[in-house]
């Protein structure tokens, strides 16, 4: 038995889970009209209602005991202080330092992280202003009109998700585009309408070895130089964000055009660093700083609020409850705000790359369910596609519903319709409708008995499906910063409770290594006899059919 399962709170939660599985939330709501007051957290810019979960005060107390017994608060202190809590890589985890609002020194391995951050922010600001004000000129003397960010995973999803979410806050000084896929179709499509002399590329790669990003960067360089007829034009049209300066310079990128990354910032937590350059170029530096401030607000809340009132900690505890104790295997993220259309994809990486692991930080097998798979879509689109499954399938999928009180693009009548659906869905998922009610409704509509007998079982919704509702006052840079940081800390707390090293990603290496070998085999047309027969036959088929 793992050390977690020996904890008193763990045992208590296992026992409570058995009891709760036979209860219905309808009963819990009927018995306690204070549920919303008890199980919601209101912050200045957003609200979390977690009352529509299969919990009561005893469950929450046991979950808080679990957080206590697993020393979440001590780990939190260690993370913010820069202790090397990324054990397998022996690294600090300090994305929070990127958004600190004071200049107190924070020393890691003899270096003051605060100095690095402040220096980088200052450099970013100068660069951003220069480009946005038209003082950065391309090889033909023209101002930059288009930014193309080349990067993948954490070097793409965060910046692109934020750019999409905050589109309404852009003044259009530049147009921002993203290329992440090594499928040439994407870069060709992005570059097609652009004029090489007016484009600035940001090659974002912490390692500057990621094959897909390097391939796209080479293609971009070729595209530029075949228009400029000058290798030196790369210096005017390419900047890099990386921890690997040498590799970036070997691409012809000028040393002055390289923004640092550090090993204490994980890729999927890096949008707050220069990896967020494209955001800052799009919105202007002041708004980028607001995004950082919003994240900092959430950091302060996470540090200071008691766990029972702590937005990210409660989100994490509810997820642990639903997954590890009640047995759900996936979780839906359902934004009801068009601006958040990339949030699910972003959170997929954030949560699944962080906590999708099956050994503890000490390398022992984990024998309990850890994190769910994350999936989802914009709520309204999902309603007309997969919500059938959420309402009636045998698998219970807890869901986070995320909406905003005010739309940033108000169009008469639209927001109310959107939000009516937002509220209706969580109520329907929770309360469902039983057969008796279904039959009564059909009868009231004048249906005959034969029809009622045939259709009634299909119309039953069992309900009892857990949801969290997150309601932001509106989507703006500050509030979005807070929301993202809340999920970052949620992931951290989950990792601590489940004993997972949330900040490495060894699981991506095997496939990467094999892909490199196979690429070489394909290029040399020499397929190794070491592959299994399925892979060997697929490769042979592919080569023959080319
Ligand atoms: O392969 C996964 C990964 O390493 C992610 O963790 C990372 O965000 C992404 O690739 C991109 O890495 P890099 O910024 O080094 O190109």
Description:
The chain has 546 residues and is an alpha/beta fold. The chain folds into three domains: 4-85 and 290-431 and 465-498, 3-Layer(aba) Sandwich (Rossmann fold), CATH 3.40.50; 100-283, Glucose-6-phosphate isomerase like protein, domain 1 (Rossmann fold, 3-Layer(aba) Sandwich), CATH 3.40.50.10490; 507-545. The protein has 23 helices and 13 strands. The strands form three sheets. A six-stranded mixed β-sheet has the order 1-2-13-12-10-11, with helices on both faces. The protein has a five-stranded parallel β-sheet with strand order 6-5-7-8-9, sandwiched between helices. Strand 1 (40-42) and strand 2 form a beta hairpin. Helix 6 crosses helix 12, helix 7 packs parallel to helix 12 (277-283) and helix 13 (285-304) runs parallel beside helix 21 (477-498). It starts with 7 loop residues before the first helix and ends with a helix. The structure holds 6-O-phosphono-beta-D-fructofuranose. 6-O-phosphono-beta-D-fructofuranose is lined by residues 152-155, 205-207, 210, 213, 267-268, 353, 505, 508.
Helix content: 40-55%
Basic shape: globular
Which molecules are bound in this entry?
Answer: 6-O-phosphono-beta-D-fructofuranose
What is the domain tally?
A: 3
- Uncertain stretches: none
Largest sheet: 6 strands, mixed
The number of helical runs is 23
In whole angstroms, the N-to-C terminal distance is 53 Å
Beta-strand residue percentage: 5-15%
CATH topology title of the largest domain: Rossmann fold
Kindly report the name of the CATH homologous superfamily of the largest domain.
Glucose-6-phosphate isomerase like protein, domain 1
Please report the total strand number as a whole number.
13
Q: For this structure, what is the CATH class of the largest domain?
A: Alpha Beta
Nearest-angstrom radius of gyration?
A: 26 Å
What integer is the average pLDDT?
97
């Amino acid at each position: 038995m793992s050390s977690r399962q020996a904890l008193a709170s763990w045992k208590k939660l296992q026992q409570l889970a058995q009891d709760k599985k036979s209860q219905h939330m309808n009963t819990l709501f009927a018995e306690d009209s204070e549920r919303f007051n008890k199980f919601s957290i209101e912050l200045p810019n957003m609200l979390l209602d977690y009352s529509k979960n299969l919990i009561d005060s005893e469950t929450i107390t046991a979950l808080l005991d679990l957080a206590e017994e697993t020393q979440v608060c001590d780990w939190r202190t260690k993370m913010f202080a820069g202790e090397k809590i990324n054990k397998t890589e022996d690294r600090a985890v300090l994305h929070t330092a990127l958004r600190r609002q004071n200049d107190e020194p924070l020393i890691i391995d003899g270096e003051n992280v605060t100095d690095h951050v402040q220096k980088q922010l200052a450099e970013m600001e100068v660069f951003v202003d220069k480009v946005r004000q038209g003082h950065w000129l391309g090889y033909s003397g023209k101002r930059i009109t288009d930014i193309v960010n080349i990067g993948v995973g954490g070097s793409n999803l965060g910046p692109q998700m934020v750019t999409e979410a905050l589109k309404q806050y852009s003044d259009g000084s530049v147009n921002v585009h993203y290329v992440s896929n090594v499928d040439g179709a994407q870069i060709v499509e992005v570059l097609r309408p652009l004029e090489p002399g007016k484009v600035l590329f940001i090659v974002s790669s912490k390692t500057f070895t990621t094959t897909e990003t390097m391939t796209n960067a080479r293609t971009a360089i070729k595209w530029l130089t075949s228009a400029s007829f000058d290798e030196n034009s790369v210096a005017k049209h390419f900047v890099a964000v990386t921890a690997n300066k040498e590799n970036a310079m070997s691409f012809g990128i000028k040393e002055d055009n390289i923004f640092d990354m550090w090993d204490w910032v994980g890729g999927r937590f890096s949008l707050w660093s220069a990896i967020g350059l494209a955001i800052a170029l799009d919105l202007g530096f002041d708004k980028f700083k607001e995004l950082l401030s919003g994240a900092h607000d959430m950091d302060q809340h996470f540090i200071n609020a008691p766990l029972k009132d702590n937005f990210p900690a409660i989100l994490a505890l509810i997820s642990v409850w639903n997954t590890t104790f009640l047995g759900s295997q996936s979780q839906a993220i359902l934004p009801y705000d068009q601006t958040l259309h990339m949030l699910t994809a972003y959170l997929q990486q954030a949560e699944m790359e962080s906590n999708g692991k099956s050994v503890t930080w000490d390398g022992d097998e984990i024998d309990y369910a850890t994190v769910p798979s994350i999936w989802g879509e914009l709520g309204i689109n999902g309603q007309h596609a997969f919500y059938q499954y959420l309402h009636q399938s045998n698998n219970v999928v807890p869901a986070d519903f995320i909406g905003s009180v005010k739309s940033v693009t108000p169009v008469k009548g639209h927001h109310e319709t959107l939000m009516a659906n937002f509220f209706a869905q969580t109520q329907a998922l929770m309360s469902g409708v039983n057969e008796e009610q279904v039959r009564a409704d059909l009868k009231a509509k004048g249906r005959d008995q034969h029809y009622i007998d045939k259709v009634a079982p299909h119309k039953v919704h069992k309900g009892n499906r857990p949801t969290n509702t997150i309601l932001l006052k509106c989507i703006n840079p500050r509030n979005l910063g807070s929301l993202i940081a809340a999920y970052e800390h949620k992931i951290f707390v989950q990792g601590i409770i489940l004993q997972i090293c949330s900040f490495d990603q060894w699981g991506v290496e095997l496939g990467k290594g094999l892909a490199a070998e196979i690429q070489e085999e394909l290029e040399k047309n020499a397929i190794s006899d070491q592959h299994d027969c399925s892979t060997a036959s697929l490769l042979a088929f592919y080569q023959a059919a080319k």
